[in-house]
Specification:
Elements (H helix, E strand, L loop, with lengths): L4 H28 L6 H13 L3 H18 L6 H19 L9 H23 L7 H13 L3 H18 L6 H27 L1 H6 L15
Helix pairs in contact: 1-4, 1-5, 2-3, 2-7, 3-6, 5-8, 6-7, 7-8
Length: 225
């Protein structure tokens, strides 16, 4: 099946948008677990507590700073970078407004929520970065560091999560069991789904035309079909 060039951008935008829907819902799932927020949210809330800014304002300011740092490391912002800052928040708000995710009824269910959230964030993150329209601010920095160091995805991503978590905790941000699970699990989840989409592109001509995994192949043993 030959896809016209004029159809590539709309298809990639659809892929990007679906990924942001998944991530927005995943953030809602993590909050409804009631066991602690993700590392970046801890960081944002820590800064907000000292600055008087809202969490959203802090997120935007931090995002702009990270975009600048990533640019210095060789990653230029793209349409995906901008849409990341806009759409994830919108879809998160929609998930909350529509009450898609009920609060976890117990800590045991909360742990299941955290597992689901980690996998959804890994899926959405790998999907939108493979759409070829640019990574979001934080993932742009991750990709820049991967290219500079040649370290695996899980090491870079987990290191970033632990760093911002430590800074957020020092600033007074809320930390819980969920923070640890998300911080330690997101790197492996993103790496897992990078390999999933890499294998998908070998099975589907449509996927291979629309998607391109932006990191080197790992030793993953994941198989499709």
């Amino acid at each position: 099946m030959r896809i016209p060039k004029r159809a590539l951008l709309p298809l990639r935008l659809v892929c990007l948008t679906l990924a942001f829907v998944v991530i927005g819902v995943a953030i809602d799932v993590s909050i409804k677990a009631n066991l602690g927020v993700g590392a970046w949210t801890v960081f944002h809330l820590g800064i907000a507590g000292h600055s008087g800014w809202t969490q959203g304002q802090v997120s935007q300011i931090v995002g702009l700073a990270i975009i600048a740092l990533s640019y210095l490391l060789g990653i230029k912002p793209a349409i995906g970078t901008v849409l990341n800052m806009l759409l994830i928040g919108w879809f998160f708000d929609a998930s909350v407004a529509m009450r898609l995710i009920p609060p976890a009824p117990s800590p045991a269910f909360g742990l299941l929520y955290l597992l689901a959230s980690t996998l959804l964030m890994g899926f959405g993150g790998a999907m939108y970065m493979s759409a070829g329209l640019g990574a979001g601010p934080r993932d742009s920095l991750m990709l820049a560091l991967i290219r500079r160091t040649a370290w695996p995805v899980r090491s870079i991503r987990t290191g970033m999560e632990i760093t911002v978590l430590g800074l957020g905790w020092l600033l007074g941000g809320p930390v819980g069991l969920g923070t640890l699970v998300l911080s330690m699990g997101l790197g492996p989840a993103v790496e897992l789904f990078f390999e999933f989409f890499r294998l998908l592109t070998t099975k589907s001509e449509l996927a291979s035309t629309v998607m391109s995994v932006p990191v080197p192949k790992t030793r993953s043993t994941l198989k499709l079909g």
